[in-house]
Amino acid sequence: MSKRATAVALVAFACCTFSVPFVLSGISGPSMYASEKPLDVAAVRRGAFMNSGSKDIGSSTNR
Length: 63
Known about the structure:
Low-confidence stretches: none
Helix content: 40-55%
Shape: elongated
């Protein structure tokens, strides 16, 4: 392979790789928080532990 063909292949690969997040964000479904329907049992069960690893728990000092 020539240097030019290698460069074109690398640029094409980079373009495909960098476009994956944009493609995946465009095909995602609606947010669970934006739904007007009531939550199912599994979502309610997960909700209590959704933020359990957060470091910013406590009262806010920015009032």
